[in-house]
Structures
1.
Amino acid sequence: MASEGMPFPPSWREAPMGGAAYKPSTLLRTGTWRLGLKPVVDEEKCTGCGWCHIYCPDGAANLVDGKAKINYEYCKGCGICAEQCPAGAISMVKE
Amino acid sequence: MAVLEQKVVGMTGDEAVAYAIKQVEPDIVAAYPITPQTIIVERFSEYVADGLVKTEFVAVESEHSALSACVGAAATGARAFTATAAQGLALMWEILYIASSLRLPIVMAIVNRALSAPINIHADHSDTMGARDSGWIQLYCENSQEAYDTCIQAWRIAEHPEVRLPVMVCLDGFVLSHTLEDIRTLPDDAVKRFIGKPPEVRVKVEVPVEGGTEIVDAPYKLDPWAPVPLTMGTFAMYDCYFEYKRQQEEGMKAALRVIEEVGREYGELSGRYYGLVHPYRLEDADVAIVGVGSSMGTASVAVDELREEGYRVGLLRIRCFRPFPVDRVREALKNVKAVAVMDRAMSFGGPGGPLFMDMVAAFYGGAHRPLMANFIYGLGGRDISVADFKQVVKTVYGDLEAGAVREPMRYVGLRG
C-alpha cells in the first residue's frame, strides 16, 4: 500500500530521486503524538519575532500575519517554543 | 584539442587539493581540521580570508556537522566540498549514507589515515575501505598530481545527471599529503570551463490539483519559493524504500562510464589521462600486483626491477574502488596466472582484505580464475619497500609452482 501523499513508484526506475516529494506524507500527522499539553500563543504578547519558528523541530510554529501560529496537525507538544519565546507569549496548556 | 600550457608549482598533496578546490571555487566549504587533512582546510581558509575565492567557509564544530552542512547546501543546488581523515570520517558515518541516498554531488577529499585504537595518524585505508558500502564513489590517488587532477574531475563525475553521487578523492596521509611534489596546474579559467555549471536534474513528483493529482517535473533542489517546493528524503517504508536503493545502484553503474569519459576529456586538456584502472607492463605478465593508492608507485619500481631479473610481472592499480570496475579488472588480468592482491586495510574475521574479497568475487563467475593471494601491508603507515614488493611477487611465484595459494592471508613487514 502506498501512503497518501507519497508517490508510490510503480517501478524503481520511476521513483523520484532521493525520495523527493511535493509534500510530506499527510498520513503521519505527528500532532497525535502530543501527550496532553499543547502550546498556545497569546497574540497580545507575541512580537512576531519568529524565534519559535526557528526553534520548532517540526516546522509547526509559523508566522501568519506577523503572529506566531501553531500547526496542531504536526506539533508534538515538546514545549521548546514555550521555553524559548522571549516575550513569554507561548504557554503549554492541558488539552 | 591541444594540451594546455601548465604552471608547475611545488606543493604537498594537501596543498594541491586546496589549490584545485580554489580553482573550482565551490559555493561552500564546510570542514573541520584533522591530521593529516588539516592543511587542506588551513590553505583553503586562507584563500577565503584573502578574498581569492567567493566560497563561503563554514567553520563547524565536528565532522558530523561538516558533512551535514554540505548536505544542506548541496540540496539547494550549491557546490559543496569538505575534507577529512580517519576518525573524522568515522564521525561522519551517519551522514555519508544520507548524502549518497539523497543523490547529492558533494566532493570530499579523504587523506587516508589509520583508525584508532591505538591512536595513529599515518596512512592506511581502514577509514575509506570501511565506508565502501556507503554509496560514495571512491577514487584512490597514486600521487599528489593525481589528487589535484581528481579534485577537478570529481565534480563532473558527481554532478553528471545519470550519476548524482558524492565522490571521495582519497590520498594517502603523509606519503602524499605532506610530501612536496611538482604539480602541473591548469589555468583557472580552464578549470572553470572544464567543470562548467552543475547540470540541472529534474524529478517527477505528484502534485495535488483540482479534482485529483498530476505528475509534475520539478528541479531536484530544496527551494521553498519554487512553484513546486520539494521535500527530500521523505519517510519511505517497506512499500517504497527498496526501490530507492535499487535506483541508487544505477548511479554507480553510470559512474563506471562517466569516470572514463571525464578522465579522457581531462586528458585531452592536460595530457594526463585517467581511467578506472591503470595497468602497467601487464601485456605478457604471468603474475600481477593489484592494489590502490600511493604504494603502487613503489610497486611499479619493483615490477621494473623484477622484469630485468626475468620475471614476467605487471601491475594493476585500481583507481576506482567504488564502483568496482569488474569488467576492466577482468580484461586487464585476462592472461595472468596469479595475482598478489595488496590490502592496506583489514576486514577482521573476513576471508581477506576488502580489495581481495572484491577481486575474488570479480573472477569467481568467469572462466578465467587466476590464483589469488592476499597480502596485508602498511597498516598505521608502516612503510613498504621495493624489496617487499619483490618478495611478494616471488612468494606468488612459489604459489604458482605449488599449484595453490599456500597461505590465504599474508602480512608484509610484520614483526614475528
2.
Amino acid sequence: MDGSKYLYLGLALACFVGILSIFVVDGYLGVYDTLYISYAEYENRIEFDGEQHYQAGGAYYGGEIVQGELVHFRYRIDNRTFSPCEGQLQVSLWKGGTWLTNLVDKGLKIPNFDKLVIDWTLSPEELPKADWPSEEYANYTVKISFAGKERKVVFGYRTRSIVPPPKPVSGI
Amino acid sequence: MRIYVLYGFGVLLCVSGVGYLAAEYIKFLSEIGKLCCLVLVTAMFAFFGKFLETIGW
C-alpha cells in the first residue's frame, strides 16, 4: 500500500520534472537570430524570437535615422540544433511594398551549435532620391529571409534632426 | 478553519503564478515540446489524483 502510494507521488513528481526539463531544453534549442542596427552613436538590438520588442503588423521597429548617415547592420544567427543550418540569406530594402534594392544575397551554412555573424551597410545612396526633400520623414522596410523565416524591420529616415542645436552662451 | 482558508489562498496564488509563467514561456516552445508538455501535465494530474485516492482523500 505504502509503496504504491509513493510510487504514484514519485511518478507525478517525475512528470513535473519532465515538464521543467522540456521548458529548459526546448527553450534553448533552435535557430535564433538577432539584428543589431548601428547608426550615429546608437545601437539597436532586436532579438526576433527572444525578448519582447515593439512590433506592429509583423514588423519590428528598427529606429530613426537622420538622412545622410550610414546604417550598419550586424545579423547574428545562432544555430542551437544538432544538425547544420543551411540556406540562402537574402536581405532587401522595401518601401511601401515596392522592392528597392538587395543588400545581401549569399548562401550560408552554420555548423551545429555554432553561430555566424553577417555585416552589411546601408548607405544613403541606396535610397531613392525622388523622395527627398519632398518628404521630411519616410519609412523603409528591411526584409531578411533565411531558412524559411522572414523578418521585417521598419525604420524611419528623417531629413532634419529633431534635437535642437545648443543655445549660444550669452554674455561672452 | 482559518488556517485552511490561508492554505487555500496560498495554493491558489502558487497555481496562478505557475500558470502565468507557463503561459508566458509556452510561446518559446516548439509544437512537439507543447505536445509533450500536455501529455506530461495530464499524466501528472492523473498520478497525483491516484496518490490522493490512496491516502484516503
3.
Amino acid sequence: MTRPKPLILVIDDDADIRRSLSRELALAGYDTLTAADGVEGRELFEHHRPDLVVTDVAMPRADGFAVISAVRRTDRTPVLVLSVRGEEEDKVRALDLGADDYVTKPFSLRELLARVRTQLRRTLTAAPEILRFPDLVIDRGRRSVMQGESEVRLTPTELAILELLASHAGRPVTLRQIIGTVWKGAPATTADTVRVHVGSLRRKLEPDPANPRYIGTEPWVGYRFLAETVE
Amino acid sequence: MDRHPARWWQLLAKWAAVPLALGGVTLASRAAGANEITAGLLLLVAVLGLATWGGWTVGAVASVAATLCLNFFFLHPTGTFTIEAPSNWVALGCFLAASTLVSRLVARARQQAAEALARQRELEVLYELSFDLFTSPLGKATARTLRALGTESGALFLAGSEPVILVGAPEVDGTFVDAARNGSRILEDGDTSYIPLRIGGGIGDETGGVLLAAEPTAPSAVLEPAVRLLALAVERERLLREAAHLEGVRESDALKTALLRAVSHDLRTPLTSMRLEIESLERRLAGRSEELASLRGLSRQQERLTRRIDNLLALARLEAGVARPHPEPTPAGSLFRAARESLALVLEGRDVQVRIQPGCPDLWADPSVSLEVLVNLLENAARAAPPGQPLELAAESVAGHVRIEVRDRGPGLPAGGEGLSEGLGLRIARSLAEADGGSIELLDRPGGGTIARLDLPAAPELEEILAG
C-alpha cells in the first residue's frame, strides 16, 4: 500500500493521550487514526490497514493483547505497545503475541518517535548483508566482526547472537527469540544459557565496560542492540 | 479368629444326624427290598449330605458307619459282620474309600465357600466403609469405622491441637492413648482396644493418631484395613482444609495484583499526558528562554513525581509478594548507563565520571529493581551537589560482592547521623536494595561530600550458572 505519508493507528482509552499523540505524530509527518478501545481499534485496523499500530495494554472491552492477536492474524504490520513500568510480564506477553516493541508509560515523545521510525524503516528494507555501526562492522557473508582495524574473535554461538541482535538494532529481542533462532529451539536451552553467552559476548565487544554502547539489557524481556546503523 | 464358638446343642444335633440319616436310609432300603448296589448308592448320598452339613469329621464317621451298615444289612450273609465272598471285601473297601474321599472333598469345598463368603462380607463392609468415609465429615467417618469394627462406642485422638472426636460414651485411659500413639501395636485394656493410626505416611511429616474402640468384634482382616481407611479419611480432611486455605491466599494475591495494576494505570496515565504536553510545549516555545526555563522546572518535577510513584509501586509490589526480584547477571556499566538515561534531565550539564574496576564481576540483581535503587541514589547526589561539581559512579569487587558507590561533593552527612533527614527516595531505595539481596550505607566522603554505597551480590561464574 503506497501512501504519501505513513498511517499510524493510535489506540488508548485516555482521550488526552490520544489527542496529544495524534497531534505530535502529525507534526512529525504521519497521518493518524485514533481508537478508544480494542474493539474500535480492530475495526479501524481492518478498514484502513495502517502502516503501524500504537496500542495501550489495559483498556475496556478488548485490551491491547486482543489487538496484537487480531493484527497478527492478518499481516506483519508493526505493533508498538504502550506498557507500564513494573508490569514486565505484560511486555513479555505482548512480544510473545507478536508485538514488535514497547515504550514504558510515562514515555517521552522523543523515545516514541525513535521507536516508530525504527519500526517503519524495518518494514521498508530487509537487513543487509553487511551491518555497519559506529566502530563495528558485522559481515554476515564472511562471518567476520571488525572493530576499527582489528577483528573480534567470537565463537559461532556469540556470532549468531550478535547477528540476531544487530539485525534488530533498536528493537527488543526476547530470550525466547534468541533460543529459537540461535539454538533452533533446542529444549535444553534456558535463559541462563543465553545470559552466559551474552555475558562473554559483552566482554569481547564492549571497548569500555563503564560505558556500554552495543548490548542493552531489557529487564525480564531480553536484550536490545543500542547502536544505530550507519550508512 | 472365630468369635462365635458352637453351642452344645449345635454339636448334639450334628452328631445325632449321623445315626438318624443312616438308619433312615437303611430302613427305607430294606422296606423297598433294594439290593446291595442300590443301598450302597443311597448310603453314599446320605454320607455326602452329612459331610456337607456337618463337616469333615462328621463325614468321616458317617463313612465308617455307612460301610458297617452296608455290610450288616445288605451283604450276604446279612445280619452279621461276616464277609464270605472276597469280591464283597473289595466292594466294601471301595465304598469306604469313595465315601471318605467324597466327604472330604465336599467338606473342603464347603469350608472354602464359607471362607469366601466371609471374605466377601469383610470386603463389603470395607467397601461400604470406604465409600462412607470419603463422603462424610470426620465425626461421622469415625462412627462409621467403629460400627464396621462391631462397636457403637469409641473415640478418635488426632495429633496436637486437633479436637478429640467422641462416639458414644467410651471410657478413656490417657496413658494407653499416649502409649498407642508412640507405638505401632494395638493395645488392649480389658475390652477396650487402642489402635494406632499412621496419618500422612509416605509423604513425610507423619503424625500419630489413636482410635479407641470399646469391645470391637470385627476380625483382624477387617480391623486393619478399616483403620487404614480412617487414617486416609483424616488425611483427606486435612488436605481439604489446606486446599481451602491456599485458595484463599491465591485469591487475595490476585486481588492485590489487580489492585496494584489499577492504581499503577490510574497514576501513570495523567503522568504520561503531562509528559507529552510538556514536550509539545518545549517544541512550541523554542527560542523563548524564560518560558522554557519554567517549563524545564515543571518537567523535572514531573519526572521526580514519576520516579516516586515508580518507587512506591515497585515497593508495594515486592511487599505484597506479587512480584519477586528476578536476579540475572547485570554488568555495572549497563546499570550506570540506564540510570544516567533515566535521569537525563536531572543530570543535564553535569559531568558524571564512571569508574569500573577492571575485571569487576557482573551484579547478581534484578536489573529493574537495582536500576530503581541506583536512580534514587544518583538523584539524591545530584540534588546535594552544587551545580558544576562532577559526580562519580564507581563499581568494584569486594569479597564476593559488587560495591557500587555514588560520590558527590555536596555538604556531606548532617551531624547526628544519616537516619534523621533520610528522604523518601532513600528510604525506598533501602527497602528495594534489601529485597534485591543488597544493602545501602551512607558515608562521609574524605575531602567533603557523601558516598552512597550499594553492595549487591556478585553474579556467580558463568559456568556455575550453567551447572545450576
